[in-house]
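Appendix C: a fully annotated inverse folding record. The material below is reproduced so that readers can follow the format used throughout the book. The structure is listed first as tokens, followed by the designed sequence.
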């Protein structure tokens, strides 16, 4: 099935349908505010570092049994309300044959950046066979997780394009923005092609059993609203529309996107992720009605004493009190040196304080 075809609507999996996480995503009453953490699968967990020892990042994403173990670790340890599939946003790009690697301490590095129209030919369609290990891993996970939902994910077209055009991580995105401003047709074609690849990657995860999906537009905060609307929103909207027929919640998240929250919701998400810079009640005003929100404790708060963590958590929960739906999360990913016990205590505190 191509990214442009409308999938057949699937019946929601009964095991996870009534979970607190999916209820919150659908803006329905919940027994407690559900919690999960971005980057919860790994980094801060000693058991993660143990199983990953000697295994390169991209290789670890292609071993179904290892993916399963890493994804399950924070569910066992923290009692979170949802698992996030362990992978990386560049996995689909690697799967279609691009020469890239994830270098420790650096991030994704692309051997030959995408800079010209001729380079677009290297971005072929993604097929389920390209990522058969994802189908296998999601199948293993959904059997293990039972009633706990699994969140599939992918990188959004803008963030993927930024890596591809820059050749790696960037603070300024000068090459990507130069293409966006200087050759808008090439830029639009690049993002459109990445939208198809991203949609295909999400479809594989949903069809294998993922209960929700999250689109990470990690670097969209580098954009002005007018540029986002003109040059980025159409591609993100194409991704969300491509998976709309499955009926699973679609989450949209970016960092530093306070000025873009309304547009990110407009792109088609059911749930809009909010970083720690904007209070959730203000974020709800910017996003508008009809959307749940996710977030948004500052990840660095977890390095403070327990009393301070609880105080800041209460601020988040108080700001979320009037929301149509709220999924508690950090405002970005778990930092590697975070004490895992602080995360466990945080989950318990949110569950206890919000018990209906």
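Designed amino acids, in order:
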């Amino acid at each position: 099935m191509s990214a442009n075809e409308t999938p057949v609507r699937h019946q929601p999996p009964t095991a996870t349908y009534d979970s607190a996480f999916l209820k919150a995503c659908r803006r329905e009453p919940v027994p407690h505010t559900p919690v999960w953490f971005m980057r919860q699968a790994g980094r801060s967990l000693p058991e993660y570092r143990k199983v990953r020892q000697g295994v390169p990042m991209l290789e670890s994403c292609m071993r179904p049994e290892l993916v399963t173990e890493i994804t399950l670790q924070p569910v066992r340890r923290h009692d979170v309300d949802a698992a996030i599939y362990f992978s990386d946003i560049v996995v689909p790009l690697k799967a279609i044959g691009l020469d890239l690697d994830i270098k420790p301490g650096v991030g994704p590095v692309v051997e030959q950046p995408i800079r010209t129209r001729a380079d677009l030919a290297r971005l072929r369609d993604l097929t389920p066979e390209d990522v058969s290990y994802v189908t296998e891993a999601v199948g293993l996970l959904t059997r293990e997780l039972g009633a706990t939902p699994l969140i599939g994910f992918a990188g959004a077209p803008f963030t993927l394009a930024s890596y591809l055009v820059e050749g790696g991580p960037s603070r300024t995105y000068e090459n990507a923005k130069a293409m966006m401003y200087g050759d808008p047709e090439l830029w639009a074609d690049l993002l459109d092609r990445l939208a198809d690849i991203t949609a295909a990657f999400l479809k594989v995860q949903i069809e294998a059993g993922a209960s929700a999906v999250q689109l990470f537009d990690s670097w969209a905060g580098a954009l002005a609203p007018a540029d986002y609307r003109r040059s980025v929103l159409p591609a993100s909207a194409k991704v969300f529309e491509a998976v709309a027929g499955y009926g699973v919640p679609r989450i949209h998240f970016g960092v530093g996107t306070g000025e873009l929250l309304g547009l990110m919701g407009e792109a088609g998400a059911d749930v809009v992720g909010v970083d720690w810079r904007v209070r959730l009640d203000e974020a709800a005003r910017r996003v508008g009605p009809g959307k749940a929100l996710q977030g948004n404790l500052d990840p660095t708060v977890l390095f403070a004493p327990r009393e301070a963590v609880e105080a800041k958590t209460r601020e988040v929960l108080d700001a979320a009190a009037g929301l149509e739906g709220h999924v508690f999360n950090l405002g970005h990913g778990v930092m590697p040196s975070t004490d895992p016990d602080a995360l466990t205590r945080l989950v318990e505190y949110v569950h206890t304080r919000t018990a209906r």
